[in-house]
Amino acid sequence: MGTDWRRWCSQCQTQRSRCSGSCCHFTFPRSEEEERASLPLIPADIGNSKGEPVVPERQIRIAEKPGTLEDSEEESLDSDLGQVGTHAFARMEGDVDKQRKQILQGQMSDVALQKQHQRNYNRWLCRARAEDLSDIAALKALYQTGVDLCGRTVMILVGRNIPVTLIDIEKALLYFIHVMDHITVKEYVMVYFHTLTGEHNHLDSEFLKNLYDIVDAKFKKNLKAFYFVHPTFRSKVSTWFFTTFSVSGLKDKVRYLDTLQQLFTCIKPEQIDIPPFVLDYDARVNGPYHPSHSSSL
Fold first, then answer.
1. Residue 193, SS3?
2. N or C: which end of the chain has fewer CB atoms below 10 A?
3. Residue range(s) occupied by CATH 3.40.525.10 in the chain
4. Which CATH superfamily is domain 120-286 in?
């Protein structure tokens, strides 16, 4: 048979018949005299009428008519809602897979395509500015020189200095973007020396197509001429196929030059820094350079 807890005092843990009441008259006075005697011993905060603690910070005010807000609260809510979507973090893109599918189906607008292309190029540019590309720069395969007869910036590309099989081709792409980004904001020309290049110097057409697709629109718009110096029959055929079927926008800008003298009709010799081996090769194959006063662009 279990213990009857009603016979025991909860304060002094003795039988109620033996408890004098002095331990619990503070909480449960047995008469008005005991109540008056215990008043000085009662703490200042005894809670509400039910003895429950009252914490002002936890009080929740409930409106008289649920579902309606006061004017000030409505204005505050309108102000908060007005800020939704204004922060950059809130401007999220749509379904990327859906966008790519629309591109394949030809359903995306030109504006949407341009924005997507610009975002992609900006990501490449940020990588190019953050990554260490000193090993690619040391090759001296791409550099800026003077200006042509029209005052346009001249960029040099030396094929022999590109060891395709030995370099990180993605870092080469990043280096190209890093060097060319500020050049292409205005009109420019490219001079490519194909002189004495071997199989290990030839960039893959897929890489060139990828590069052409990645670069910003200003690269293509402001490129006014691409001078292909010392081409071979094979390189001419390859370039024709590439510019005809892969990057048709470049075809009309390519000009094949068999001699440096032809190049100097477009760019003055003092305005272009030519590698020594190119000068030696041209002098050996085409003879010494003879200055000419005629020019053709």
1. strand
2. N
3. 120-286
4. CRAL-TRIO lipid binding domain (3.40.525.10)
